[in-house]
């Protein structure tokens, strides 16, 4: 598994834009088609980390994490984290979370905040594994 940090200067091949669209729609079916322009616009205000796996000669995006900086006290928000259906339960979410935490630390953030998720869900188990603390309305992970 190779993780790639995407910024607004990067571009993805059409097939990988389709992969991103499919991953985003897995979270929110109403999410629109990801275009190069939309992705470039989004990466100006957030940090995107993709998990790529090579299938033959092509690479396919099978995991995605999005961090959005907040103005409050060195906090960055975990906005999205998703692994493609056929690639789940293989430790990819754990690898992706490690990478997202590393990115947040390197950029000087002291805290990661995430929204509430259903108790007992795979996401909640992932948060517990990384010692996120449940507070009123969200989860927190101290990076200090």
Structure notes:
- The protein has 144 residues and is an alpha+beta fold.
- It has a single domain (2-142), classed as Gcn5-related N-acetyltransferase (GNAT) (Aminopeptidase).
- The protein has four helices and seven strands; from the N terminus they run βααβββαβαββ.
- Strands 1-2-3-4-5-7-6 form a seven-stranded mixed sheet.
- The chain is globular and about 40 Å long.
- 24% of the residues are buried.
Mean pLDDT, to the nearest integer, reads 79
Kindly report the name of the CATH homologous superfamily. Gcn5-related N-acetyltransferase (GNAT)
Q: What order do the strands of the largest sheet run in, or round the barrel if closed?
A: 1-2-3-4-5-7-6
Low-confidence stretches: none
Q: Return the CATH architecture.
A: 3-Layer(aba) Sandwich
Strand-pairing-aware structural class:
alpha+beta
What would the CATH topology be? Answer: Aminopeptidase
Question: How far apart lie the N and C ends?
Answer: 27 Å
Overall geometry comes to globular
Rounded to an integer, what's the Rg over CA atoms? 15 Å
What pattern of helices and strands is seen along the backbone? EHHEEEHEHEE
The portion of residues assigned to helices is: 25-40%
Number of helices: 4
Strand segment tally: 7
Strand coverage percent: 25-35%
What's the layout of helices and strands?
Elements: E1 2-6, H1 14-27, H2 36-42, E2 47-55, E3 58-69, E4 75-83, H3 92-106, E5 111-115, H4 122-129, E6 133-135, E7 138-142
Parallel strand pairs: 4-5
Antiparallel strand pairs: 1-2, 2-3, 3-4, 5-7, 6-7
């Amino acid at each position: 598994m190779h993780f790639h940090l995407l910024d607004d200067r990067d571009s993805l091949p059409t097939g990988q834009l389709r992969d991103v669209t499919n991953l985003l729609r897995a979270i929110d079916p109403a999410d629109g088609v990801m275009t190069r322009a939309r992705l470039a616009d989004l990466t100006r205000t957030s940090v995107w980390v993709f998990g790529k796996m090579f299938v033959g000669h092509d690479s396919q995006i099978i995991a995605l994490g999005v961090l959005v900086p907040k103005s409050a006290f060195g906090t960055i928000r975990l906005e999205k984290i998703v692994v493609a259906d056929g690639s789940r339960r293989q430790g990819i979410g754990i690898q992706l979370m490690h990478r997202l935490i590393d990115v947040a630390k390197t950029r000087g953030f002291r805290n990661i905040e995430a929204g509430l998720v259903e108790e007992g869900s795979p996401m909640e188990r992932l948060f517990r594994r990384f010692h996120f603390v449940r507070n009123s309305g969200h989860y927190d992970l101290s990076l200090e």
